[in-house]
Amino acid sequence: MEAKAYITQMNGKNTNGNGVHTNGVNGKGEHTNGKGVHHVHLRSGATPAKLRGHVKRWDIRASEMSKNTLNPIRAIVDGMKLTPNPEKPMIALSIGDPTVFGNLPTDEKVLQAIKEAIDAQKYNGYAPSVGYQKSREAVANFYTRAGAPLEAKDVILTSGCSQAIELAISVLCNPGDNILVPCPGFSLYKTLAVSLGIHVKLYDLLPEKSWEADLQHLESLIDDKTTCLIVNNPSNPCGSVYSKEHLQNILSVASKHCLPILADEIYGDMVFPGCSFHSLAPLTRDVPILSCGGLAKRWLVPGWRLGWILIHDRGDVFGTEIREGLVKLSQRILGACTIVQGALESILNNTPQEFYQRTISFIKSNSEICYSALSTIPGLTPVMPSGAMYLMVGIDMKHFPEFKSDVEFTEQLVTEQSVFCLPATAFEYPNFFRIVVTVPEEMMVEACGRIRQFCVHHYRSQCHDSNEIDQ
Fold this sequence. Notes:
alpha/beta; eight-stranded mixed beta sheet; four-stranded antiparallel beta sheet; 16% strand; globular
């Protein structure tokens, strides 16, 4: 049978009227000039018309990693029917950004440091992926503690604390491994882990013990595929601050099972007067710790995207491999904002203590206002925080039979009272909701009043005692 070769040239040149080139083919029907030409070898009788059934079609699909990436907060909120009462201005107690309402500006010294970094014209180019040496030294000096010394080589600067957490998980875990995550806990841990093919095991926090970890439950989850324990202190969403004794108990479990710890300490030192923040690293000699932090919350600049990983490894358990792995992972993007890096030493060293104290005093006052108001509402059980900027509230759902879940409860609260609290289902902890306590004081008072009106209207005692409704 006679064989024919049809060759389509990609640039459209040297083709016949049907877009088919018939020259430049050797005896085997193969193109020999290598100039970006696609050839199809057909048996006798094949025509360009028959080629149409074999034309490659566009078939672009999202990656498995993207399909496996899910932010539980966005999934919950996007699925809610949020229609505020048009007669009442909206009060959002759901947003974990302390700058939203403009009542908590950063300090003038922080702004001045940024202005000077810009004017210096030294920080407009690329920095090393792990950050400028001088900036890393500044972080190391600021966070060095007795028993937990740091040098510049122990610091990786990142694009916010979120990237620090991502790098820490990525360097410690492989697909198929599992990590231990607090419940309720920051949803990003699971978002990052699952997208990387890492399984998440949730260990319980106990509201009746000010959200301490259930150590027995935590330890029961550990197996030979467990590669990391995440500890968030102070806590988002709970606002809890762990005692030194409780942290030592957590470290004992980690030491017993040779588990490294990812310590999310972004709210470190944001604790109320009378409480103390204890960083994990100075409390252990053998457990290696990757401590993640940043400027976002304590300095009230979450949009500046400057975070860090502090590598604490007094026993040299990580060796060179984990350190080199972090450097390699940091090279996937070119690091944190260079302008903020240029200002970092001044920010850390020159921010006045009065600024920190004012911020904490305000958050504590708002927390007390909220806790006191909600404590007297039948069907609600707030848990007083000790730090960070959140307060969790339990809902006794049996007294609100109209609602099947905390999601429905908070959704209707928006509809009737234009107050939005984040349902704790977003943190895989149903029948609670989270309040962000950084809103202006008058807004907090107004929001608590509206929550009271809502609960009084919908509360039902188990025996339908109307007297209890009026209390």
